[in-house]
Design goal:
- Helices cover 41% and strands 13% of the residues.
- It has 375 residues and is of the alpha/beta class.
- Among the domains are: 139 residues, Nucleotidyltransferase, domain 5 (2-Layer Sandwich), CATH 3.30.420; 52 residues, no CATH class.
- Strands 1, 4, 5, 6, 7 and 8 form a six-stranded mixed β-sheet that branches. Strands 2-3 form a two-stranded antiparallel sheet.
- Helix 10 links the parallel strand 7 and strand 8.
Amino acid sequence: MRGRTDLQTSMVVVDLEELIPEQHPIRRVRPFVEAALSRLEPTFEEMYAKVGRPSIPPEHLLKASVLMALYSIRSERQFCERLQYDLLFKWFLGLDIEDPAFDATSFSKNRERLMDNLVSKLFFQAVLEEARQRHLLSNQHFTVDGTLLESWASLKSLQRKPNLGGQHKVKRRRGGGPKGPGGGERNPEVNWRGEKRSNQTHQSKTDPEARLARKGAVPAKLCYAGHVLMENRHGLIVDVELSEASGRAECETGLRMLHRLRRTKGRVTVGGDKGFDNKEFVQGCRELGVTPHVAQNLTRFHGRSAIDGRTAKRVGYALSQRMRKRIEEIFGWVKTVAGGRKLRFIGRSRNQLWAEMTGAAFNLVRMSNLEQQLA
């Protein structure tokens, strides 16, 4: 009679550190992230509750936001699903191979806590401080620009504002305005034929802070205005802000970012496109001690520009005009790799948190590449 054989199972110990290739680009990014997070430890200590149930560490949420930007992950739920089986993600977050992924609701439950403590802004500044210590930042020459970021809200969410005291009266044509359910039960058809829409008369029900805006000969969409202040030496982002999409948003936000800029004793210049060639922005820069090197717009005001001919003939002005075009690389990366062509969140404060984390992720990639080139 054949005897029964006992099967012995052996435990296999897997070290995630050995699974990640030595030349993988993420290895150059992780030290910068760890150094930036170490600067935020006092803030994290205040965020933790002394008693109660344990929560997801904010370090994990910040690292997850960086990974979502680097790997073009379109949603937090998709990230948590991938975290369950992606060993690289677990290694980056400092998890063990047997640790389960946290639930996607951890992001929404902790987002208010992160915003109240300005964690995203502090993380962005900590990454900048790491770049400053490695002498990767310029304190003298900068570029400012803005772009439109499409809101999560659809044009179908537009509704007419209530008529208060007879203001904003709009003549309603026959057949104009939204229609009821048509082609589908949850996605009703809307017909705006014969009715004008504007920010003065209409507002989005989904995202009331979004505004109708457009650039060029394209239809207007519900958007926010994204603004970036870039240093010209290595093309790093030194400030990022989301504002209401209006015709004066670029100049007003640009001056605010220059006001927040760390001052130096030397000469400070700022480049920009023709949209910044107006008296308010140029005069505001000079009051802040910043020399404006914006492009001359000679097609407006009968060929008159706020930048005088003496400034336009200088070598530094030509250099600023050449370097300012690098800021388009930032907008291109944010809209394609980081998924910012259409925003994921509702409200300006939540999208501001996303913008700061995305700006920090761009700087991390740029810093890691610079460290490799300069090594």
